[in-house]
Amino acid sequence: ENLAGVPLVDIEFPLFAKAQKLNKRIFDIILSAFLIVLTIPFHLYYIAFRKIKVSMIWTTNSQHMRIIYYQSNFNFIQDMPLLFLVFKGSLSFVGTQLLDISHENPDLIVKPGLAGLPHLSNIESDSIKEFEHYYAMNYTMMFDIEILLKSLLHI
């Protein structure tokens, strides 16, 4: 907010710095490309037999995004199509929880991700803002890697 042109509070989130955003994007592109290549047989199988389902989720700026899941009993197989959205830049590996549009608009500030602090805590959608702010204030690449490793061990 401004008072006569003077900023009252000027908070900079490390996550939104240009260098940090570029590092995070490069990390997402490299890891998603590697995993897409590694999982091509699964993608071909599920697409060929049309074992897919479509859902809508909330993204930043109160917008919706259509995502595709594979119909499987295993979460890691269900989420494989999301790798393409990470590669495209619509999602991130580490971000906020994927919220279906049946939930009230959460007004997200962090891009939705496959893993994140809300995923590790199994929280209700009401508390996501607190996790988003903590993540944005304390963001580092090592923090992302730590969240990814904890998410893999949490499965």
What can you tell me about this protein's structure?
Helix 1 runs antiparallel to helix 4. The chain is of the alpha+beta class. It has 7 helices and 6 strands. The chain has helices spanning 18-38, 40-48, 75-78, 82-88, 117-121, 128-137, 141-154, and strands at 2-3, 6-7, 52-58, 64-70, 92-94, 113-115. The model has no long low-confidence stretch (mean pLDDT 86). Strands 1-2 form a two-stranded antiparallel sheet. The chain has a two-stranded antiparallel sheet with strand order 3-4. Strands 5-6 form a two-stranded parallel sheet.
Give a quick summary of the entry.
This protein is an alpha+beta fold. The protein has seven helices and six strands; from the N terminus they run ββααββααββααα.
In DSSP terms (H or I, runs of 4 or more residues), the helix count works out at 7
User: Beta-sheet strand percentage?
Assistant: 15-25%
| Main sheet overview | 2 strands, antiparallel
| SSE pattern, N- to C-terminal | EEHHEEHHEEHHH
In helices, the fraction of residues equals 40-55%
Mean pLDDT: 86
- Arrangement of strands in the largest sheet: 1-2
Give the number of DSSP strands: 6
Instruction: Report, as a whole number of angstroms, the end-to-end distance.
Output: 42 Å
Shape verdict:
globular
> Which spans of ≥5 residues are poorly predicted at pLDDT below 50?
none
- Overall SS class: alpha+beta
Rg is 17 Å
Oligomer state of the chains in this structure = single chain
